[in-house]
């Protein structure tokens, strides 16, 4: 019953692989990888295949790096909703009451969620086979890379299933999964590049050591998820877990959130104990006092502890040791808000639709603007406060490291970029929540939009630079960076005091890209606000 006669596995496979989305995703995945190979294909008229041309090796490395990043982003999106989806559909109690063993349920869910992604990876084999005759890499290295890719996908899927068993919402499970997977992805990329000149050692580690540790972690996480289903916590009506905040605080490991103390009350205010004031916005009052605590504080505690654990070593490296690379720490803060910020707003309107209370909200005397800002302020407040915790190291680095004293303008610019990122991410998430029907789809839509705007332009510029394109082409591509805070952060100038023994500035910068980013963000926010107001006023399809 674990694999061949597992009804959970069979049902999930039929439901996932028969959808139009499965075929569309397969086609887009193949087109994306084929485009990378086409752009990176060696441009030399003659290649000396006996000397392992560097252009061919560069092509294969780019192919696997792109596929690894794409797979690491997609694996949690498939696996993080395996168990939380049952809770959101109110079928979790029925699943627990079935004669299936918890291990069979977890295994079936994980295999079904990763089968589609495994098909995508295997479908890329014909593309990489075209690159092998160019030389530069052996067949064994390709097989090791594919093994490492499959092992990573299984590990990331297990992390998603593990997180899914501890949360009641897919959005919470997804963001915690991404926060855990992010450092693993970074370490894997650094490992692969650091051992580039030691092919035999890298091959042995990829084939023997890494799969053993990954398999052990997968077994432990699947066993923990199965154990949680075997002895589930208190379950109330429709499969919703009963969360006792007092008991949760007593059993919490590490950080404990106390809503009656500062600064916890900024992002987790205490429960409402008095009547609503006259003239107050009822949407804001309801959201700020009930939505945050409806699922407990586990997600908030994990987000804060994981983010601070990663921030401490990054602070020491990029703010004191390699202080000329301060933009990399700002990039970490931006990535954190990209992952965490949309969670608190992507379900603002879709949750009303899922609870079937959207009709009631639309028939009130509240104006569209009151509904929008009541929903927006709550989610923006939480994401901004959580992000500000990571800005303290940046402020301390600017004060304690005297090299930054002559770069005050750049530091202010980085704080401004992070503030704009918080605003843009929140507005985009709220807009996607208004135009989507499910919270999970709204969150994924938000991530896709932000990835295209933020990651797309610097990725294109880096790809052109790696492939030795003309400087004119690279300069034109840099102008697309006005949509990306990453490009804006790296475009801030830094003087020569950050580079010891050098008279050249640490970063020449490009202030036009920085100002262009602020202008583009203002236009984006304004356009989204008008789109949301028009959507609420028309009410076309909102109540369906």
From TrEMBL:
Q: Which domain of life is it from?
A: Bacteria
Q: Which UniProt keywords apply?
A: Membrane, Transmembrane, Transmembrane helix
Q: Which residues cross the membrane?
A: 21-42, 62-84, 117-137, 143-167, 174-193, 205-226, 298-320, 326-346, 382-405, 411-435, 447-467, 514-534
Q: Which residues form a coiled coil?
A: none
- Where does the record place it? Membrane
- Identify its membrane topology class: Multi-pass membrane protein
Provide the protein name.
Answer: ABC-2 family transporter protein
């Amino acid at each position: 019953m674990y694999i061949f006669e597992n009804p959970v596995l069979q049902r999930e496979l039929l439901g996932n692989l028969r959808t139009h989305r499965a075929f569309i995703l397969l086609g887009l995945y193949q087109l994306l990888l084929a485009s990378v190979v086409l752009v990176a294909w060696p441009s030399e008229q003659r290649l000396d295949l006996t000397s392992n041309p560097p252009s061919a090796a560069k092509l294969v490395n780019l192919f696997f790096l792109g596929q690894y990043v794409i797979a690491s982003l997609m694996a949690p999106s498939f696996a993080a909703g395996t168990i939380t989806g049952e809770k959101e559909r109110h079928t979790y109690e029925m699943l627990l009451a079935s004669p299936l063993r918890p291990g069979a349920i977890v295994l079936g869910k994980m295999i079904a969620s990763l089968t589609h992604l495994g098909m995508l990876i295997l479908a890329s084999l014909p593309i990489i086979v075209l690159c092998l005759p160019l030389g530069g890499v052996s067949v064994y290295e390709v097989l090791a890379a594919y093994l490492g890719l499959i092992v990573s996908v299984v590990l990331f899927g297990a992390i998603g299933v593990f997180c899914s068993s501890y949360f009641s919402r897919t959005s919470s499970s997804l963001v915690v999964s991404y926060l855990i997977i992010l450092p693993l992805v970074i370490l894997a990329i650094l490992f692969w590049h650091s051992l580039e000149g030691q092919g035999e050692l890298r091959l042995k580690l990829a084939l023997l050591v890494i799969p053993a540790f990954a398999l052990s972690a997968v077994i432990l996480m699947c066993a923990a998820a199965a154990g949680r289903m075997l002895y589930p916590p208190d379950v109330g009506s429709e499969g919703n877990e009963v969360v006792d905040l007092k008991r949760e605080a007593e059993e919490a490991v590490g950080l404990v959130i106390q809503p009656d103390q500062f600064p916890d009350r900024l992002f987790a205010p205490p429960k409402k104990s008095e009547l609503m004031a006259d003239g107050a916005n009822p949407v804001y009052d309801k959201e700020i006092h009930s939505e945050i605590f409806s699922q407990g504080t586990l997600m908030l505690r994990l987000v804060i502890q994981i983010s601070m654990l990663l921030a401490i070593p990054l602070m020491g490296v990029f703010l004191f040791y390699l202080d000329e690379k301060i933009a990399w720490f700002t990039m970490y803060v931006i990535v954190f808000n990209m992952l965490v910020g949309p969670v608190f707003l992507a379900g603002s309107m879709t949750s009303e639709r899922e609870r079937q209370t959207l009709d009631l909200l639309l028939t009130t005397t509240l104006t569209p603007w009151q509904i929008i800002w009541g929903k927006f302020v709550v989610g923006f407040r939480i994401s901004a406060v959580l992000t500000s915790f990571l800005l303290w190291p940046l402020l301390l680095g600017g004060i304690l490291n005297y090299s930054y004293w002559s770069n005050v303008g750049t530091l202010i610019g980085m704080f401004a970029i992070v503030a704009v990122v918080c605003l843009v991410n929140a507005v985009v998430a709220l807009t996607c929540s208004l135009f989507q029907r499910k919270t999970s789809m709204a969150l994924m839509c938000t991530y896709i939009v932000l990835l295209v705007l933020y990651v797309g332009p610097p990725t294109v510029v880096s790809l052109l630079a790696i492939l030795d394109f003309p400087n004119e082409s690279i300069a034109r591509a840099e102008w697309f960076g006005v949509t990306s805070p990453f490009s804006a952060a790296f475009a801030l100038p830094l003087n020569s005091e950050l580079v010891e023994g050098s008279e050249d500035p640490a970063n020449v910068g490009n202030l036009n890209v920085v100002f262009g980013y602020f202008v583009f963000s203002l236009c984006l926010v304004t356009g989204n606000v008008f789109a949301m107001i028009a959507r609420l006023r028309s009410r076309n399809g909102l109540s369906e």
